[in-house]
Amino acid sequence: MKNLFRSPATEESKRPLPSIIEVNVNPKEYWEIVGELGDGAFGKVEKAVSKSDRSLYAAAKAIEVQEGEQLEDFLVEIEILTSCKHTNIVNLYACYFCENKLHMMLEFCGGGAVDAIMIELEKPLTEKQIAYIARYTCEAITFLHDNNVIHRDLKAGNILLTSDAVVKLADFGVSAKLKDRNEKRDTFIGTPYWMAPEVMMCETFKDQPYDTRSDIWSFGITLIEMAQMEPPHSNVSPMRVLIKVQKSAPPTLSNPASWSIFFADFLSQCLVKNPMERRTAKQLLSHPFIANATDRHPVLALLAEVNADIEEEVVIDDDRASCDESCADSEDQGLVTVCSTKLTCEAVDLIDRTRQNSLATVAGVAGSQQPHGPLRPGGP
User: Fold this and answer.
1) pLDDT digits 0-9 by tens, 142-200
2) Torsions phi, psi for 76 (to 5 deg)
3) Which CATH number fits the domain 110-380, given the four candidates 1.10.510.10, 2.60.40.10, 2.40.50.140, 1.20.1300.10?
4) What pLDDT score does 15 carry?
5) Among 49, 168, 208, 335, which is disulfide-ready with 330 (CB 3.0 to 4.6 Å)?
6) What's the pTM?
7) Residue 61 labeled ligand binder
8) Which positions are catalytic?
9) Which residues pair with 169 in a beta bridge?
10) Domain ranges of the chain
């Protein structure tokens, strides 16, 4: 279940369509769908390949504009992706509006989302992996803030990796583009577990707006998520966490002895309840925890481990099919003795059941913390 709230576009939001949107053009003229990647907040996300360049792949997101909604409701994300071109921000290749559907062709990241990697491997990241991902996520955040953009939904699920371990910040569906550095926002928006205290306050007090530093709190929570597989307070409901964060001291690592003092200090500079005392993204780039974390090999090893895990699942499935065929042949021939193939088949079945139960446990834990989707009431 996801907590997604939208309101129709306000008069203020109505603006000319960005030039990147091709109206009344079917994306199938230029792209071929070659597979499914998963489900997004507004529908399926599919893998597509360019018909003019077969080496160019995209994540195709189709959003059906419902009756009563305006196309302008979705323009902020497009405008941000169009104007904020950076190595560590997912690229928008093309955009089409056809038959009441908005089609976005986004950069395909073969490594997947960081939270999905942890769930697949059933373990958190190492400190070197966290530092590397944090370094380049911080580069992306710095660029956004320099361009007066608040992401507003930072979490491991919105940090993607390419197959060669390039970090990409994604999902600007609830982001805000400020007019200048002095502008603030008072919209209660984001995902509760990662939400900064000052953003939570906006649910009740509209006279205490927030700025780009709210992303820094979410960034710190995201790093704890990478270290522990879940954000702090994930054992309580989303609405209760809003109260808990306000009343509690800033969260820390549950087992600090397992991590370096640099990591702990970095988190302490992100997770400051008073936003004016919080470090900026640019200041954090010089922190010892991430300043020299440029070696991608730990993350390449992580991706290799994920691929090996997936290949193992495929091999087990293939072995199961082979065993089933062999056992069927034995039964067809009227053999009474239990053959070694039958024993192998049972072993494969046991391994497979064990893996399924283990994965189901992880999926159950993740599912129990839902909604992990952003809260979206109306407002800019």
Assistant:
1) 999 999 999 999 999 999 999 999 999 999 888 888 765 555 455 666 688 999 888 88
2) -60, -45
3) 1.10.510.10
4) 64
5) 335
6) 0.78
7) yes
8) 153
9) 89, 159
10) 11-107, 110-380
